[in-house]
Amino acid sequence: MGYRMLRLPDVVQATGLGRSTIYAKIAAGEFPAPVKLGARAVAWPESAIAEWLANRPSARAA
């Protein structure tokens, strides 16, 4: 499996969360923080998003 970085639109699509909800959860420590790619660019490691999806309460209840 390759090391892939996801930009915000990909994270929104994968999680079903909106931009403001993602950043609110980051501020609350409930979502992985992005990695800075440059002065104005960030992305999330695909593995961090996959782990968050696997460990969220709604995923464990199903």
From TrEMBL:
PANTHER family xref list: DNA-BINDING TRANSCRIPTIONAL ACTIVATOR ALPA
UniProt name for this protein: Transcriptional regulator, AlpA family
Organism: Paracoccus alkenifer
Gene3D superfamilies documented for this protein: 1.10.238.160
Signal peptide region: none
The organism's place on the tree of life at top rank: Bacteria
Transmembrane regions: none
